[in-house]
Specification:
Radius of gyration of chain A: 29 Å
CATH class of the largest domain in chain A: Alpha Beta
Structural class of chain A: alpha/beta
Number of domains of chain A: 3
CATH architecture of the largest domain in chain A: 4-Layer Sandwich
Distance between the termini of chain A: 56 Å
Oligomer: homodimer
Helix content of chain A: 25-40%
């Protein structure tokens, strides 16, 4: 695969020029290390697709060299692809305790628990593979138990930050280990890979703890039930909801499968502390004094099947939002989700609830989990890398991150903005990007992994916008003449009761076309089908300015 | 239609619980007045639809009473439906000068110029129809020549604000006529209909003139060409771009059809003043010193076919964005457009341009054209209506607007949050909402108006997510036995070269089903087709967890 066996190579198989399906690779000679294995949700152009994962052809071709899949934290865009990955390439997985707990939920679902080697490490752990030692440093993000990774290779250290922010007054004392980062930087960093999600945003994020104060205030003010919705994986925020409920004398119900799952895993592993008598079941809510109830639920991004959406349309078993209940959306809509979130807010107002919402943390009920510009500069300053590769972001974010790196003194020529698949090769004296490995995306649709390709999506696109028309033509085997009337059906094209005339015209033009053609060519299948398609196509376009997909069947008897 | 002939009735046929397709109706006895006739762009769930307009069944049923279509201003959500409306109901249209100019562009396109009675009025004009006199007041918005409307009926005045903000330092002295509004309020307003777009936003909008300062500053700083993109209809902003170009010694090129159209209409009518030698053609840009060039273009919302998008992908004849050119997006992405806008910004950075962008006016390059909370309260205070109907907004906006009205003293019982079609009847002593007229949406798709209905969209939805499978079965007329192999084609379902086994299984199950059935029932068409569909459906779901649309044809010979 490569004639650069003696160098260090770094590349991404996902996560660059996109948000989602993160996967980064560090290769030193014959040892390949994979960092993260996320999934990505499709945008609306990928019709019917459930999930997008990485194309790992390169890793399969080099499977004897792949030593480990190391996971930085438990978010979907870092762990969501693991079951699909392991079905293709069963290698050992390494993760911290909480991350491993969340991965196990997935492995169970996919029936992979017994076949997977999942090793738990801690921020102080050290791993060793041939020439490469691996150590970690604790970071802070919107999920606990996050780490950055240091690969100690013979030619220098490669640091991958994972997702991070600097929260200096963290919930549960889950602080970033700045001293260790400083030490790593002092010892020399050859290459830094750092996340770029918020590289467009100036300043320094407020601490997660500020959210807790706002939650408690609203819990105190509320005269009736309080509903609060946030990402289940934001365990620190869940802790603050628990604390606010306790301080204001409310019991807490949990709604939504992922909320129940994450709370159970996080409690078991000690990342979440819930008083013994705090939790109640949904069916108990109706029997209690509304002032004594808080409900923590999923669906803060407007997901149509999640708890908040169902609550807002009065469609949740045992639980009802009533006039003057308070509903808090402790979140900021991710681009693309605004409309779904707005619809929920409309419905909550229709239920006469008091709704607390807003984007970008304007209500104080949300802070981002990703480093803003000053935090990114702090990381760059701590690590003072020789080479820098901005990762985890769309192009404009990588570009802004590059500018930030230059501003704190990284040489412009030593910064590499890459694409998925672009390889940065590093040796003692220099780094260069001249070659690529195969990278791409694979679609998951139902049980199918990779069986929906671009051509299938192109057909779905045409069908979705214009619909289709199917024509069955029955002709004589001997002379190609029509034996019966053409049989025509449309779907997604026109409302047929309104279009009887048009369908009649279609059948007429089909008859004429077949009759004319068969007298010349006899029963040449392809010629007949192509001519029919062409003449029907132009008729329909003239009449409707639409181009439905036209399929014809020729039955010869 | 109604047994309330002696009252005043007010309702909406579009614009409530939505942004778009505005149409409000004021009826006094036998005189019906229609206000605005906008279109709405479909969201992504309305697959393949080009435009949404109002269902005007009620007006058609009462066409002898419909006196006038009066337009408040020239935005698409207020004029976009006019050609479709006039084809159904040819009534006189009234508009201010610029609005009429923009309407004429549409009438021309639809071949309606000669058949339409379009009357131009001014803010000082008075119209009279039987018992009802109509006057206007000048407002300020993100397009010039806007008005609010006053219907003077025998039982009191009905005021419709149109879209508005209060810009007290307006470009071109295009100020809202606050004195006239105060007088209207002083004389007594029975019912106020006021727009609610920004009812969620606190404060008072900055003046459009602040944008001009920022534009000029960037024009001055730019070392190379400057590109600036904004809504073509924002003539005041276009004026400020012209002014900035003049002050900084740059010539100006216009790119994009709507920019050229609007500038031409607005210049002709005196709403825009461009120095004689200011404009250049696109092909001249390349020949000039980049420091002497500014380009004003369409596409600030990321529209894929508009000028900015094509420029960003180096796909615009004669014009190229080069390294260190400046590109300004003088806009804020409308929810739903963020992804397209982001893609353009990524591409502009790839071209090494200096890009100035940001949402919500964070760069100073955009202000909203809609009244914020303090401005809405100012309008309510000026008008001090007895009854209030918040219009032009989604539910949460109407709800917040209701709260604002209460805060400035409107009686809670006198505020009506309605749906499209809900009628507010008003007499001397009271107002009440007890009845509805027919209201709805009509889809425009190509040349078809109304021929795509919900069932067609449902089919498009299934086809778009799961694709389809078509099976042609040829059986004997006498005993219903198969005569040849089933013929199976799929589209949008699976990549067929990967799915040969599956298709083979389908054909097998079809054969078995037909054979079994025909031995019992003979050739009962429906029974055979239903059984085939059912057995194929469950096979495919088991194998793929997908449910493509299955269509079968039964040919009997």
């Amino acid at each position: 695969m490569t004639n650069l066996e003696n160098t260090l190579s770094i590349f991404a198989l996902g996560g660059i020029n996109e948000i989602g399906k993160n996967m980064y690779v560090v290769q030193y000679e014959d040892d390949i290390f994979v960092i993260d294995c996320g999934s990505k949700f499709p945008d609306e152009s990928l019709l019917g697709i459930d999930l997008i994962i990485q194309d790992i052809t390169y890793l399969q071709q080099n499977k004897d060299k792949v030593r480990a899949l190391i996971i930085t934290h438990g978010h979907e865009d870092h762990i969501g692809g693991i079951p699909y990955f392991l079905k293709q390439l069963n290698i050992p997985v390494y993760a911290t305790e909480l991350t491993a707990g969340l991965i196990n939920l997935k492995l169970k679902e996919h029936g992979l628990l017994r076949h997977t080697e999942l090793t738990i490490f801690h921020a102080a752990s050290k791993l060793s593979f041939g020439n490469v030692d691996i150590s970690f440093f604790r970071t802070n993000h919107s999920i606990p138990d996050c780490v950055g990774i240091v690969f100690h290779t013979p030619i220098g250290a490669v640091v991958h930050t994972g997702d991070f922010k600097f929260d200096l007054t963290p919930v549960n004392n889950d602080a970033p280990d700045i001293h260790k980062m400083a030490e790593i930087g002092k010892n020399g960093v050859l290459v830094l890979l750092s996340e770029s999600t918020n590289a467009e945003r100036p300043g320094f994020n407020p601490s997660e703890i500020t959210v807790g104060g706002h939650i408690e205030e609203e819990f105190r003010k509320a005269q009736k039930k309080v509903f609060i919705s946030t990402f289940a994986s934001n365990v620190h925020r869940v802790q603050q909801v628990v604390d606010a409920a306790q301080k204001t004398g409310r019991k807490l119900a949990l709604l939504g499968r992922s909320m129940i799952n994450v709370v159970s895993v996080a409690t078991e592993l000690g990342h979440l502390r819930i008083p013994d008598d705090m939790l109640i079941e949904p069916y108990e809510i109706g029997k209690m004094d509304p002032e004594k109830v808080a409900v923590l639920c999923t669906g803060s991004q407007g997901e149509p099947m999640a708890a908040l959406s169902r609550l807002s349309s009065s469609n949740f078993r045992h639980v009802e939002i009533l006039p003057d209940d308070t509903v808090i959306l402790a979140s900021s809509p991710i681009p693309g989700n605004e409309k779904n979130v707005s619809r929920i807010i409309d419905n909550l107002y229709l239920l006469k609830a008091n709704v607390i919402y807003g984007s970008g943390g304007s209500t104080g009920m949300h802070v981002s989990g990703h480093a803003n510009q000053e935090e990114l500069k702090l990381m760059l300053t701590l690590m003072k890398p020789k080479y820098f590769i901005p990762i985890h972001g769309e192009y404009r974010m990588l570009y802004k991150h590059k500018q930030l790196a230059e501003s704190v003194g990284v040489d412009r020529e030593n910064i590499f903005i890459i694409n998925n698949g672009d390889v940065v090769d590093v040796d003692h004296t220099k780094a260069y990007q001249t070659r690529r490995v195969h990278a791409g995306r694979v679609f998951v649709d139902g049980l199918g992994v990779g069986d929906v390709r671009n051509i299938v999506l192109r057909d779905r696109r045409v069908l979705s916008e214009e619909g289709m028309l199917i024509i069955v033509i029955t002709v004589s085997k001997t002379d190609g003449q029509l034996i019966s009337e053409p049989d025509t059906i449309s779907r997604g094209f026109v409302y047929e009761p309104d279009a009887k005339e048009l369908i009649k015209e279609v059948n007429e033009i089909v008859k004429t076309t077949v009759t004319n053609l068969s007298s010349i060519h006899g029963s040449k299948r392809t010629a007949i089908r192509q001519s029919v398609k062409k003449s029907v196509e132009s008729l329909l376009f003239e009449r409707t300015k639409r181009r439905p997909m036209i399929l014809s069947f020729l039955i010869e008897i």
